[in-house]
Design brief:
By secondary structure, this protein is of the alpha+beta class. It is built from seven helices and twelve strands. The strands form four sheets. The chain has a four-stranded antiparallel beta sheet with strand order 1-2-11-12, covered by helices on one side. It has a three-stranded antiparallel beta sheet with strand order 3-8-7. It is globular.
Length: 176
């Protein structure tokens, strides 16, 4: 997969950088990663578990919505689905939309400096043309556990990239 660009963002994203990254976008201050009904069912199928057990083990209820649980590791919080020393996502093929849309979140349209510190895959457009080029000094000193500022703002302050009603009301409960 090549470099990804989105309208309204003055940066691009190279997903190949994820191979060597220790999950910096999934670590930092406590926050929320929202999961809707369809995503929950996909995660359950992937983990070969039923929704009730999956919710109890991996999710927190926040009002009528579900958010992925976190654990405290080293000096920050991290997603419960990060595994191993390499910090790889255990549910990567079925990760929530919120995770798949990173780094193209509304918050980063005006806070590019934070996403530059967090993500080694950020690329900047050259002003003279359509080419994308890596930023020269964006990540020289970043180590595991960095990326807290973006996570803090985008998640704990409710600036997730989408707002979806979690369908756990009387009309959908029977689907289980």
């Amino acid at each position: 997969m090549g470099v990804i660009r989105r309208v309204g963002f003055d940066f691009a994203f190279d997903p190949s950088a994820c191979r060597d990254c220790p999950g910096r976008c999934c670590r930092g201050p406590s926050g929320r990663v929202w999961v809707n009904h369809e995503e929950l069912l996909e995660i359950c199928a992937f983990l070969k578990t039923n929704p009730i057990d999956c919710i109890q083990k991996y999710f927190n209820r926040v009002g009528n919505r579900l958010s992925v649980k976190e654990r405290f590791a080293e000096d920050s919080f991290e997603c419960l689905f990060l595994e191993g020393a390499e910090k790889r996502c255990a549910i990567y093929p079925v990760r929530p939309l919120q995770c798949r849309q990173f780094p193209f979140w509304d918050y980063f349209r005006t806070h590019k400096d934070e996403v530059l510190q967090e993500c080694p895959g950020i690329r900047e457009y050259r002003k003279a043309g359509d080419e994308v080029t890596p930023l020269s000094s964006a990540h020289p000193s970043i180590g595991p556990g960095c990326g807290s500022s973006g996570r803090q703002h985008r998640l704990s302050k409710g600036l997730e990239p989408h707002r979806r009603k979690f369908p756990f009301d009387q009309s959908t409960r029977a689907e289980y």
